[in-house]
Design a protein that fits this description.
By secondary structure, the protein is of the alpha/beta class. The longest helix is centred in the first third of the chain and has 12 residues. The mean pLDDT is 92. Helix 1 links the parallel strand 1 and strand 2. The chain is built from two helices and 21 strands. It has a six-stranded parallel sheet, with helices on one face. A six-stranded parallel sheet has the order 6-9-12-15-18-21, with no helix packed on it. The protein has a five-stranded parallel sheet with strand order 7-10-13-16-19, with no helix packed on it.
């Protein structure tokens, strides 16, 4: 992917570094970070305070959903987000899947047929989003999690590492599914499972 604009990763911590590596593997040039801590990056990219430095297309580089939600609510209108999604070269995304803007799909992740993922999502390393799954905006699927077919998850929800959500389950917004959980029943908004 040859980018004609700089990429800005908003957050230079762990998740930001993973996004930077994805962009590097995609041969993207002009990648830099926005972060409060100018020494935050251990990568080669320059770090600027938020909203400073060269203009470019932004993708959120922090994994913490509450921080992401706050930035989207308070500053989202001011940010020129990347209009497509970023996909690690080893991930598989079905041609029939619909992926929202500024979503990141990690190494060895799988997004199957007719899945629909909202904006600003994280589909982390080795996770599986099966057929006809619908994810809201700003949903984080942690490494190794499996969402079986026809699952739906509302905005700002988190599914922990190696969790399994069985077919047809409906999970609300602002939900936290703990690592290793087996979810066999619907989950209401705001719940911790």
């Amino acid at each position: 992917m040859q980018n004609s604009f700089p990429f800005i990763i908003y957050g230079a911590g762990g998740h930001g570094k993973v996004i930077a590596e994805t962009l590097s593997l995609m041969n993207c040039q002009d990648v830099f970070f926005w972060d409060q801590n100018d020494s935050a990056s251990q990568m080669d990219q320059k770090v600027y305070p938020p909203f400073q430095g060269p203009a470019g297309k932004v993708i959120l580089g922090m994994g913490n959903l509450s921080v992401r939600k706050e930035i989207l609510a308070e500053k989202g209108e001011l940010i020129d987000f990347f209009e497509s999604f970023l996909c690690h070269p080893t991930a598989f995304v079905s041609p029939s899947a619909q992926i929202g803007k500024a979503t990141w799909i990690g190494p060895q992740a799988i997004v199957h047929s007719f899945a629909k993922i909202g904006d600003h999502g994280i589909i982390n390393s080795g996770s599986i989003v099966d057929h006809d799954v619908h994810l809201g905006n700003n949903v984080h699927i942690a490494p190794g999690a499996t969402l079986c077919g026809n699952v739906s998850i509302g905005d700002h929800s988190f599914v922990g590492a190696n969790a399994v959500v069985t077919p047809g389950i409906k999970i609300g917004s602002n939900v936290f599914i703990k690592a290793g959980s087996l979810v066999k029943e619907d989950v209401l908004d705001g719940a911790v499972v």
